[in-house]
Amino acid sequence: MPLTGAKVSVIIPAYNCRPTLQRTLRSVLDQTMPAELIEIIVVDDGSDDGSAEDLDLLAAREPRLRVVHQANSGGPGAPRNTGLRLAGGEYVFFLDADDWLGLEALERMCAMADREGTDVVLGKMVGVGGRKVPAKLFAETLPRMDLADQDCRIYHQMSLAPLQLFRRSLIDRARLRFGEGMLAHEDQLFVVGAYLNAAAISVLADYECYYWNERADGTSVTQRGGATAEEVYQVVGEVMELIASRVEPGRVRDRLIYRHLRIDVFSRMERLYLDLAPDAQITTYKAARDLLAVWATPQILEWAPARWRKLAQHLLDDREDQVVEAIEARRRALAAPKPAPKAAAVKPAAPTGLKRILRAVRRRIGLAASRLPQSSRTPTRTAAASSAAAAHAAVTARPAQGPIGSWSRPVVAWTARPALIGATC
């Protein structure tokens, strides 16, 4: 049964993640939000590394934690759907078992959704271990955004990963579920559907909510290559059809569709095509050409740089030799050494405070001397030196002053906690 009165349900799909699982769970158990408002659902997707047994031990001691075991499904979509069926919170947050939360994350995100009436909240992400995050998106907090806004950056800068806060009523109203049996891209229809149906979306950028971890051993789904080319392009086609069905023709729709052509066609071709196995090359080439034939209107291609417009034309003309040549040329350009930047001219250092005062004193001495009668204008070197020395002594005799308006924020250290379970992680 769902936890009665839960504000937020945290759903964690888990598969062979024993080394990181304790840290992930500790970050949820230690949230500043009152414990009775958080429901934690971990769906073990057929792990065989001992993490399933560890989870059972912990669930016996922690009433907020519910652990469900199921046969391996081949991807994170099925365990997330299982978690959704069990969740009873007003909001749902999806957390991967490699990652962890800032201790105030849930409290802050739920408060923003309550205050602004938004259906989705994107909390600021921090990349760990080399993981790239959409840093530009989190440059400032955006209380309310809509995909129909001309200046909305969310769709174009976010990765469409579901590591966000969703209002449960939105999920039910739009009938959102994850694709199953896929290693990656299973989340795109869910997230795009949420964005298109949301009353508004918030970006919380003034607190580090989500620590997105890149596995050091290279065993994550994304690091191992993700979904097959056939699966990727099937999902991309469905996503663009969903956009076309929900957004009126025009500039906004063109930009949304171009986002997928940019990432899933042009960029993917340049990065992967030459290194794919022959059968994957055939699938990728045909799928990219078919998507361009349907969606690459002249208006949409205006967003693309010249090299991508040429690549699109080669694909539409079915000139694979030109496609290969264009991709090879791009790789050569990226590999070419960049010219060293010109050395900037070194400007003389600005005078320090003491030097500025001494200069002013000397100028005043010179001005005073110029006003004297001709017979008195040539002071002795001793007198001038004495005047400068006196000025120097007057300045250096002043008491030292501390910084004006100095401010420092307290540093919150991560306190070591006892292990949740007996496993060595």
Describe what you observe in this structure:
The protein has 425 residues and is α/β, with parallel strands linked by helices. The chain is built from 15 helices and 9 strands. The protein has helices at 18-29, 51-61, 77-86, 105-116, 154-157, 168-174, 188-197, 229-246, 251-272, 278-295, 298-301, 306-316, 320-335, 353-370, 381-396, and strands at 8-14, 38-45, 65-70, 91-94, 100-101, 120-128, 142-145, 165-167, 201-213. Strands 1, 2, 3, 4, 5, 6, 7, 8 and 9 form a 9-stranded mixed beta sheet that branches. Residues 377-385 and 391-416 have low confidence and may be disordered.
The computed structural class is: alpha/beta
Order of helices and strands: EHEHEHEEHEEHEHHEHHHHHHHH
Low-confidence stretches: 377-385, 391-416
Coarse shape: globular
Oligomeric state, counting identical vs distinct chains: single chain
Largest sheet: 9 strands, mixed
**Global mean pLDDT:** 84
